[in-house]
Design goal:
The complex is a heterodimer of chains A (637) and B (458). Chain A is of the alpha+beta class. Chain A is built from 20 helices and 23 strands. Mean pLDDT of chain A is 89; it is low at 58-64. The mean pLDDT of chain B is 91. Classes of the chains: A alpha+beta (637), B alpha/beta (458). The interface between A and B is large, with 63 and 58 residues.
Chain lengths: 637, 458
């Protein structure tokens, strides 16, 4: 697929629309609906529970698409438990405890930052998830604010809603009919930011995601680190449907993913046109299933042979007038047959590497002979305009697979199915599940509504910080260099920074460098600088303002604190105590100057050498400028 | 029209010309909201309007912030559960499902959150299609009460309904029941329904069946399988065996008790082992052999009598004698005491107990430890209490003793006859011995136990 022809105007013509759902874990001590500590585990689980999920029917007496799909997969779901950080709530043997009010406060805070209207009364809802990722079969979630916006370049991106919800389990493995989840992450609170589909070009997607991420991080109330953010990207084009690319791990993937998705939808719409030209629509569509096992009694195709030996079957699906459609490209390196394969993999749980189906639009491979394919086509009574898809596996799964092939082929006559798709680094996606609709939402009868009072809103409003964009501009005006200002605008220490400048009159450029660059360096060296409280840091800077330590001394004290946590004053005194008295200092300078004069012929290099020797000993104990003046005097310049 | 709305909010709805199910745009001092007006819980406050937004979420809006409500449409919630005709197959057993009110199977109305019980065979088939592979199902709705509201009238009615259905030829009975008092009903049915030729299986669910993770489906599948195919002709409870969804346990109706407020595997056989394991995958695995077998005849005995002038007194230290006095004064005919340890109460109660004896009140001692026997010879206290007229009820569970005493008093007021009825086991309510594996409450933390549950939690 070549998309060089896609200019901005072309994307506009395509009707490219994109919105984001950004899930960000928030920083609370405890989980959202129980009192377990909100921490992740790396060690082996202590116990396991086995469950199954069963769909509940929709109002019309039919199963909801996702529900049906998940039920067809018949998964044995195993949950791994930890006795000290997972309780009976997580594995659904205890009803929810009252919602964590600290989390609600943070949700309100974030909603305010996004300029949302805050709801007056929170209603906890259940969002069905039958993939097993939540033991109840639903996620408890609530809306905190609606109808907000954030600034982006010279316009605004609308915010549909800010939700507060419990995180799901982490998947450990998923093979065939067995799926295993770790429950540690379950019920850690997160906020979900849902934007309007206001993004008009793939290039803008990571930028908007980044703007939202920065806004969230600037509050200092969200979790950091691996897995604390998950981004879903919704894409549609004119005539297409909303498709959700789920769990995009990196901003850097977004542009290619959304670009490819727009083109995939375009390709599928073109294929539908082609089918219509051939007279195939949803009423005239024909897909029938034939048992072709007898064709392959002595096949050299290893997969098929194994399936037959295990008592399974090979089914042929004849898709009338589909010849050539299966090999039509839909994404780079993928074609319409890949769409079918995705469904077979997920819904029928048939996975084979490299393929779980073969079809008549491709040359025979994997040991399948042309003769076998010809006989299969004959067995399926397929004509020259038809395509045949072969699937194999145990009786039950292969039947599901063949039906699923028909279903997906039929969907092509309607357009783009609502799907959740799994992203890959190369910008392509594969089927993950059917996208559920609003019907999967229903009230949580276990939780009461919670009134949000005006006093509470006022209290939180007073805590709001300046938004990162304004903050960054202000830092620029203070003379702080671009990258430092950009980082500091969302840094946890930004509030401290403002206090240092305002209350202690610390020069902004110095304070910013210390808080951003020095801390980053220390983190690389000693790891935990998070443990240093703003109050401790404030004390260090005050000692500098009071002349107890030099600017370099600030760095030395911070290093001391990171290396050996302890009372701040003790670390300050260590550095302070190292400051030599005037006479010692003068003697040191004289000695260094003397040596430099003897060793080196030239004045400037003498200065550098003397400074180098002296600062090696004195860094942090005496201000560099002071030493420089003394050296200059001693060298007689 | 204004379901659940009262006072100011209702007034406001009328004022704006909208009602429940109106699709509206609400303008408030802090933004606009578009959605459908939902019914409000009647116990909730009267100054919030509940709206279902387009994305399916619900929110509450403070009525005082509302500037206007503009109706743009109307979408009423439908409460009909879809029915499919339950297939009948002459080769399969006929099972009658008696409903008392617990929602074994149900679906939830997405818009209101109301749980709609599935009960007719067609509805059940729609919800749990596997049932059709097990039996031909007939359903009879006896009552529609929460299990805590079950009482003598419902117990008698249920017993009589069982009698009728068995006489008509049912191959097994399933009784849908709320879980809270399921073991009480199981106990009384064990006395009221005797000599049953077919299995009588009580079933319910700990997680309502509108939830994807509900235990209802497997409980229903296992109980129907038991009713149709098991050879155990007793009153039983069939519920999740462990918290993992692997098998159900069949508990004898007189030895079972709900032991956890919310676990799926809440029902446990006390002081003995359960009758059988049953799984949708591998069928029955009997755990003992001393049960009554299924028969072809229809010689069932329905003995539905109950005198409700019976109470359980759960003894606690420092209990005052007026607790006993008040029962005597109010005309109670029977008292079951759940005593401490081997079956004790304090000395200050003695005069009241003696007075109760003189009034001809039947008094039986059980143990609040639940496991173990009453043994009133070990300490003087016990001997004194027996002298005062309290009869030790062996290892009968307190709730079971309550049921049996009510049932016995329904037959006679003669204390000797009552004593004979009480101490002659009818359905395993007392046993002659407690096996070593009848008391197993595994304690977490112990290495062997941790190793056991590391594989899979039970």
């Amino acid at each position: 697929m070549d998309d060089r022809w896609m200019s901005d105007a072309d994307f506009a013509r395509l009707g490219f629309k994109c919105g984001l759902e950004i899930h960000h874990q928030i920083r609370t001590e405890q989980k959202l609906f129980c009192r377990c500590p909100a921490i992740l585990r790396r060690d082996a689980p202590h116990a396991r529970v086995l469950r199954h999920m069963r769909p509940t029917m929709s109002e019309l007496g039919v199963y909801d698409g996702t529900a049906l799909m998940e039920f067809k997969t018949r998964k044995n779901v195993t949950y791994q438990l930890y006795r000290d950080t997972v309780c009976t709530y997580e594995f659904d043997d205890t009803p929810p405890f009252p919602v964590n009010q600290e989390a609600v406060d943070i949700g309100i805070h974030v909603a305010m930052m996004l300029n949302c209207s805050i709801v007056d009364e929170l209603h906890v809802s259940r969002k069905q998830y039958l993939d097993g990722s939540i033991p109840t079969g639903f996620q408890r979630t609530m809306i905190i604010g609606v109808g907000g916006h954030i600034p982006y370049r010279d316009r605004q991106v609308g915010i549909i809603q800010l939700g507060l919800e419990e995180d799901a389990c982490r998947q450990v493995s998923n093979r065939g009919h067995d799926i295993t989840f770790k429950t540690d992450r379950l019920s850690i609170p997160l906020v979900e930011v849902v934007t309007q589909p206001d993004i008009r070009h793939p290039r803008e997607v990571p930028e908007v995601a980044n703007a939202i991420g920065r806004l969230l991080r600037s509050t200092g109330l969200v979790r950091r680190g691996d897995g604390s953010v998950r981004q879903d990207v919704n894409v549609s084009i004119t005539g297409g449907t909303r498709v959700e690319i789920k769990g995009v791990p990196k901003l850097g993937w977004m542009e290619a993913l959304t670009r490819t998705e727009a083109l995939r939808q375009k390709a599928l719409l073109d294929l539908r046109e082609e089918l219509l030209r051939r007279g195939v629509d949803k009423d005239s569509f024909k897909g029938d299933i034939t048992d072709c096992s007898s064709v392959f009694r002595s096949t050299a195709c290893e997969f098929i042979m194994k399936a037959l030996e295990a008592g399974g079957k090979v089914l042929g699906v004849r898709l009338e007038k589909f010849k050539g459609i299966l090999s039509a490209p839909t994404q780079p390196g993928r074609n319409f047959a890949s769409e079918l394969a995705g469904r077979v993999r997920v819904i029928a749980c048939i996975e084979y590497d490299p393929v779980n189906l073969l079809h008549s639009d491709e040359p025979p491979r994997l040991g399948l002979t042309e003769e076998e394919m010809r006989r299969a086509i004959r067995a399926c009574k397929a004509g020259p305009e038809d395509a045949v898809v072969l699937v194999w596996g145990n009786m039950q799964d292969v039947t599901t697979a063949a039906q699923e092939v028909c279903i997906r082929a039929l969907e092509l006559t309607a357009g783009i199915p609502n799907e959740t798709r799994q992203p890959f680094p190369d910008g392509t996606t594969d089927f993950e599940r059917i996208l559920p609709g609003p019907d999967r939402m229903y009230p949580d009868t276990d939780s009461p509504p919670y009134v949000i009072t005006g006093e509470r809103l006022e209290r939180i409003r007073r805590q709001l910080r300046e938004p990162p964009r304004e903050r960054e501009e202000r830092y620029h005006r203070m003379g702080i260099p671009g990258p430092v200002a950009f980082q500091l605008a969302i840094d946890q220490r930004a509030v401290l920074f403002d206090r240092l400048v305002k209350e202690l009159d610390i020069p902004p450029v110095f304070a910013a460098a210390a808080l951003v660059e020095k801390m980053k360096a220390l983190e690389r060296r000693y790891k935990p600088v998070d443990q240093l409280s703003d109050e401790q840091l404030y004390e260090v800077f005050r000692a500098c303002r009071d002349g107890r330590i030099t600017r370099e001394g600030v760095g030395a004290v911070l290093a001391g604190l990171s290396e050996r946590p302890g009372p701040v004053d003790m670390r300050i005194r260590e550095v302070e105590g190292q400051k030599p008295d005037r006479r010692t200092l003068e003697a040191m300078v004289r000695g260094a100057a003397q040596k430099a004069r003897t060793d080196l012929p030239e004045g400037r290099r003498r200065f550098q050498a003397a400074m180098g020797t002296l600062m090696h000993d004195l860094r942090g104990r005496v201000a560099g400028a002071e030493v420089a003046d003394m050296v200059k005097a001693a060298l007689g310049r | 029209m204004y379901k659940g709305y009262r006072g100011r909010t209702k007034g406001r709805l009328i004022e704006c010309g909208v009602k429940v199910w109106s699709d509206v745009e609400v303008r408030t001092g802090h933004g606009s909201f578009v959605g459908i007006i939902l019914p409000r819980s009647e116990t909730a406050d009267d100054y919030h309007l509940v709206l279902k937004l387009r994305n399916g979420y619900n929110i509450g809006i403070d009525i005082d912030t509302i500037q206007s409500i503009n109706e743009v449409g109307y979408r009423e919630g439908k409460y009909k559960i879809p029915e499919r005709e339950f297939p009948r197959d002459a080769r399969k057993g006929n099972v009658t499902l008696l409903g008392t009110g617990g929602t074994i199977a149900s679906r939830l109305d997405y818009r209101t959150g109301a749980v709609i019980p599935a009960f007719t065979p067609g509805e059940l088939y729609g919800a749990v299609p596997e049932l059709a592979d097990i039996a031909n199902l007939t359903t009879i709705k006896l009552y529609g009460v929460f299990s805590e509201n079950m009482g003598p009238e419902q117990w008698k009615g249920t017993a009589e309904a069982i009698g009728r259905e068995v006489a008509k030829g049912a191959d097994g009975i399933v009784i849908g029941h709320g879980t809270d008092t399921m073991h009480h009903t199981a106990a009384i049915l064990s006395f009221m329904v005797q000599n049953t030729p077919v299995p009588i299986v009580m079933v319910g669910s700990q997680r309502s069946s509108d939830r994807p993770s509900s235990d209802a489906a497997m409980n229903l599948i296992c109980s129907t399988t038991t009713a149709a195919k098991s050879d155990i002709a007793e009153v039983m409870v069939c519920m999740f065996g462990g918290t993992s969804e692997e098998y159900c346990l069949l508990h004898r109706g007189t030895r079972v008790r709900k032991m956890h407020s919310s676990y799926r595997s809440t029902f446990r056989t006390i002081g003995d082992v359960p009758l059988c394991m049953v799984s949708p995958k591998w069928g029955f695995r009997p755990l003992r052999d001393d049960y009554k077998r299924r028969r072809k005849d229809r010689d069932i005995l329905i003995d539905a009598k109950f005198d409700d002038r019976v109470a359980i007194v759960y003894y606690y230290p420092n209990m005052k004698p007026d607790m006993i006095d008040s029962l005597v004064d109010r005309g109670y005919r029977g008292i079951v005491i759940a005593g401490t340890g081997l079956g004790h109460v304090n000395k200050p109660l003695y005069p009241s107990i003696i007075r109760a004896k003189e009034e001809g009140i039947a008094m039986y001692m059980t143990v609040q430890t639940l496991w173990g026997y009453v043994q009133m010879f070990v300490y003087d206290t016990g001997r004194d209490l027996m002298d005062a007229g309290i009869v030790p009820a062996a290892n009968m569970l307190p709730e079971v003793a309550y049921m049996k005493l009510g049932w016995a008093l329904g037959h006679t007021e003669n204390l000797d006859e009552i004593r004979k009825l009480m101490l002659t086991p009818v359905a395993g309510e007392t046993t002659e011995r407690e096996p070593h594996n009848g008391y197993l409450i595994l304690q977490g933390g112990i290495p062997e136990v941790e190793e056991f549950i590391a594989h899979r939690m039970h």
